[in-house]
Amino acid sequence: MLTDREIISTLEMLENENLDVRTVTLGINLLDCAGSSISHVKDKIYSKIAQLAQNLVPECDRIGQKYGIPVVNKRIAVSPIAVVGAALSSSQQVEISKALNAVAQEVNVDFIGGFSALVQKGIARGDRALIEAIPHALAATERVCASVNVATTRAGINMDAVLLMGQTIKKTAGLTADKDGIGCAKLCVFANIPQDIPFMAGAYLGIGEADAVINLGVSGPGVVKKAIDRALESKPDMDLGQISELIKKTAYKVTRVGELIGREVADNLKIPFGVVDLSLAPTPHVGDSVGEIFQSLGLLSIGVPGTTAALALLNDAVKKGGAFASSRVGGLSGAFIPVSEDLNISEAVRNGYIGLDKLEAITSVCSVGLDMVAIPGDTSEDSISAIIADEMAIGVINNKTTATRLIPVPGKAAGENAVFGGLLGQSTILPVNNGQGQNHFIRHGGLIPAPIQSLTN
Amino acid sequence: MNKAILSVLGHDRPGIVAAVTGILFNLNCNIENVSQTILQTEFSGSFIVMMPPGLSLDDLHERFIENLTPGDLHVHIEPLLKKEAVPTTRESEPFVITTKGPDRRGLVAGISEIIAGHGVNITNLQAVFKGGDDPGDNIMIYEVDIPIDIDQQKLYRDLRAKAKSLTLNISIQHRNIFETINRI
After folding, report:
1. CB contact under 8 A, A4 and B174
2. What order of strands is seen across the sheet that includes strand B2-11?
3. ipTM
């Protein structure tokens, strides 16, 4: 017999605290679609995805209804297209992106990720063609997401790729200038990219993964915030150890939801279950914000002194709760801080509580990086590349995933507002030091070597 | 060996269970099942017992009348008859139906009528009506077994329509979600 308390607290999480399954992402291996004929590759990709993903959306909706938990997004992640289309030219890769977009529309998924390349140590022919194709692909499609991994702790940082990505971001923004450079919102640059992220824009299916796999992303910043608020209301003198414990238990509950739904979707589709990615992923709605958690913890706003320590506590507690709840935790699993997508963080930027420097600092303890950060449209490709390089260094040295999703907003300057719409939100544009200038350090190119793994001081 | 089911009702206070079970012990009855709860200020308990040979239901009842204190407790005793083999129950899945909304007469009757009309069995019902318009003060929680061969969508539609007519918010969820979230 269930207790009324168990039932009412669960309903509260669902009805008033925005607990949901943020995404069920079907990973599909496309390596058997590789070839040198563009029409052959396109056809094989289309038919394989259409066949494997045809029941994804109805099944997610059915299971969402069964448990009373909405599966907000249904997505697909495919093998890196740079590998699948290694024999193709840049313009042919753009054709592949259109085929991916078309099949995503047919099976009614929100996004399809995997227009990706892994170039941490060197750039192969297919990788270069794909990176060249990214601006056109993101401008020509709506649902395709791209990611490029330019660094790992084992390989170091490929600075040639970093510069190439600075240039690519700039071009992508230019080709989607009419929508404030929205193409860049679908492009992530990574260090240490996990192979099983269900969240966009970084989702792709790793080379070491099965033929098809269901990964699932749960969210719930509102649940964590309300749990902290309730606990502090009844016991205002809780210390941070006790608050950490509370967040851990809450993360446990949220992860369990994900595991239940993910396994059932996987079973019903007869596809292996992969991982639950427990990430506090905000949306631009009040009550679904990571930024609000900082205020519940006692800070004036995200960005003021104490933010890094608070985020470290939050991120660690979320990981611990998730790891206890499921033996299949993966992806990014931690707190996201996407500026424009989080109403509260966006407000903090507008009010001057947080800038690019502090954002970069806190990425050393969060699960991703400089995410959905709008910068002036005239920021040079050198400066964009340099921001990427700094972020990659944090990931590589600290043996963690970091990423950038930077949006140089064409025709707009620092302090102006960039509007991306929907879940992508809006943000005040942040200034960049020496934003328009050259950067000779970046232009040296080459590889920043892999770091020593001892003498860690 | 005969079985009996006893129900005990009365104003709650310490010692009721001890009084009932003490009498049963002295009569060599073996308790097989107990379910006890308190509704507001009132005690309600059900006991299934195995009676020793030679003890009749009338004897049992008489002993309770004589010995059960305090005297305002009401005891009802029935024989537990051996039923014919129960036909195989329909395959079903456990769901939880929860409603919140302003108190008024006919809420339980309205919702349970729909549940019954679809051949769904209620396995546990908790309801609290403190009155007033605060939805959180007026909650019904039905644990039900929904046969897998019924038209679930129609059940959902009928329940939602009835809830709407009673100005109730209704949630219908598989029981596993509550166990998964709350229990290790």
Report:
1. no
2. B30-39, B42-51, B2-11, B74-79
3. 0.79
